[in-house]
């Protein structure tokens, strides 16, 4: 069991990762879960009617996406890889195996949703900083960046290996698993059009309060989707025992912290959406339970 002070230090790092999620639109890079995005490209001046129509279209994409009408996510039936996360090589082996699991598990659902699910995200492991199509990111940020037909997930290996050595091996496994599941949730949003439409809605929002709420809806959905995949595969991974206990603690203590932008959601709501995804297996619309865009504002606070 990890002592509370160690977990608090870990959470301080998680909070430092918080950042507005951006998205790839035509000729534009996209990011999610931290980092500084590129400058906005020159915008064509639109009429009020055009702006209203575009906003309505983006709202339809995020609220009524075909993703929400698909059946339960299939279990990948692949087990957690038995490697130590003490080294960078171990973290890389662990995440590469997990990425393959996610790719297979999501395929039937995303094909049913009509998504352009033809390429697997590329994992990029970095040390202190990385230059991406979405801007420069710095340790300890885990990050999704999509650009056209390219999608990359950036993982700071030292952050996870240090957690293994200094905090708890089981907690490090839970963190590595949940982090990649969350970032893959952004990939699901990306290929279904949700990520792009949500970021467009955020840019169009007239107040900072509205912009931050849109970001929280997007981030909480990514956590719910990631947890849904883990829940579908919980018998085979397995997500049980100490690993499940540490994962549960993690998702219930992740989100916005005092002094940081309120762009990822409260601890309570992050835990609620994570559990909603994880336990949705018994319902007919698995991903549909992750529709944060129709939820009340209090549920995405």
Defining key terms:
single chain; 301 residues; alpha+beta; two-stranded antiparallel sheet; 6 strands; disordered N terminus
What value does the Rg take, in angstroms? 18 Å
* Major pleated sheet: 4 strands, mixed
Number of strands: 6
Average pLDDT number: 84
Q: How many H/I helical runs?
A: 9
Shape field: globular
Distance between the termini: 30 Å
- Beta-strand content estimate: 5-15%
Provide the number of structural domains: 1
**How are the strands of the biggest sheet laid out side by side?**
1-5-6-2
Structural category? alpha+beta
Described by its quaternary structure, the protein is: single chain
Helix % is: 40-55%
The SSE order reads: HEHHEEEEEHHHHHH
Low-confidence stretches: 1-31, 34-48
Summarize the structure.
This protein is α+β, with helices and mostly antiparallel strands and 301 residues long. The chain has 9 helices and 6 strands, in the order H-E-H-H-E-E-E-E-E-H-H-H-H-H-H. It has helices at residues 4-16, 48-63, 88-112, 157-166, 169-192, 194-204, 208-232, 241-252, 267-278, and strands spanning 30-32, 122-126, 129-132, 135-138, 143-147, 150-156.
């Amino acid at each position: 069991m990890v002592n509370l002070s160690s977990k608090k230090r870990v959470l301080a790092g998680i909070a430092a990762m918080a950042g507005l999620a951006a998205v790839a639109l035509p000729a534009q890079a996209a990011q999610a879960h931290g980092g500084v995005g590129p400058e906005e490209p020159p915008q064509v001046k639109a009429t009020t009617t055009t702006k209203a129509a575009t906003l309505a279209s983006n709202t339809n994409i995020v609220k009524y996406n075909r993703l929400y009408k698909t059946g339960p996510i299939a279990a990948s039936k692949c087990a957690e890889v038995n490697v130590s996360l003490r080294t960078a090589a171990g973290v890389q082996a662990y995440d590469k195996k997990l990425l393959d699991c996610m790719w297979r598990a999501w395929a039937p659902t995303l094909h049913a949703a009509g998504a352009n699910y033809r390429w697997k995200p590329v994992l990029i492991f970095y040390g202190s900083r990385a230059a991406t199509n979405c801007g420069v990111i710095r340790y300890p940020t885990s990050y999704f960046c999509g650009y056209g037909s390219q999608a990359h997930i950036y993982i700071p290996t030292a952050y996870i290996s240090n957690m293994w050595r200094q905090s708890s091996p089981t907690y490090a496994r839970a963190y590595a698993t949940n982090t990649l599941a969350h970032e893959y949730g952004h990939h699901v949003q990306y290929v279904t059009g949700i990520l792009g439409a949500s970021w467009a809605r955020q840019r169009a929002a007239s107040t900072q309060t509205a912009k931050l709420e849109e970001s929280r809806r997007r981030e909480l959905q990514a956590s719910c989707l990631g947890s849904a995949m883990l829940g579908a595969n919980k018998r085979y991974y397995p997500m049980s025992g100490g690993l499940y206990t540490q994962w549960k603690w993690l998702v219930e203590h992740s989100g916005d912290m005092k002094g940081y932008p309120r762009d990822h959601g409260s601890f309570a709501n992050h835990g609620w959406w994570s559990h909603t995804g994880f336990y949705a297996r018994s319902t007919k619309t698995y991903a549909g339970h992750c529709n944060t865009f129709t939820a009340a504002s209090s549920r995405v606070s």
